[in-house]
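Q: What structure does this chain adopt?
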Amino acid sequence: MARPVWTGVVSFGLVSLPISMYTATDSHTIHFHQLQRGTADRIRNRRVNERTGKEVDLGDIVKGYDTGDEYVIVEPQELDDIAPGRSKSIEVSGFVDLDTIDPIFFDRTYYLGPRGEQYGKVYALLERALAESNKAGVATFVMRGREYLVALKPENGLLTLHTLHWADEIRDPREEVPDLPGKTEPTAAEVKMATQLIDALALDWDPEDFHDSYQEKVQALIEAKQAGQTVEKAEPAAQPTGAVDLLEALRASVERARSPKDTGEKASASTAARAKKPAPKKRTTATKPAAELRSLTKAELYKKAAKAGIKGRSSMTHDQLADALVDAKGG
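A:
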């Protein structure tokens, strides 16, 4: 059972709901330790006085704001003492249509639960009312010395809290992004072809279909190096599409997306499905037809090539790996 990261009270009007807040997401990033090259010695970060070179205890560290001429010293306790530093309440300022909150404002997501069975009815009432009205409660609260702007949303019988960026934290894209198209306009034929390509590549959104393929490759790299094997090289980056051949590239993309594969599906759908599903566990099988091997991803082919001991596999393309596996299995 997860432990709450924050507890307090949600209040709207004269109604108060004691809640516990839980982290809604996990990170599956592979973490590395820092080592000195050629050794197994860990490198650790230390709090060091830059003038004396001596390590400083955490309790002796204060915060300093640089004014240019001097530092204004602020004790950690002083930050907790000022309002709203001791806040334990999420006070809903009002309710807005969900569709009016631009996605760029959303930051992190938390689950909210009632702090006790006796508050279940109030919890269910707020969730139901928000769901039927398609509204979100906008509020502020403080956690770990920082004030947050948040939105309370209904999610299939559950209340969720989404931290939002403040308005002045959103950067103006016109100032941040160079080389925006401006008055450059695509032709009607290009727009039509691009729309056809989007339609051909349409799919139903299911987050379970997607996985972190980069982390899988990092794990495969670790396993390969642990076993003293060579590692797969990445495919070369795609070349930019120039304005001259844009229409032809779109046309070829549409034709490719619409062409059936051996499974009878669209090439794009088949490729997307393979890319989205996690790599299968290693298993020993009899010989496979060439068509089935070619339906695998390059990462899957590489694992099979490594298991088969195929030399030069790290520099092979997808099709070369498939052909090498067919030859190794005698057809």
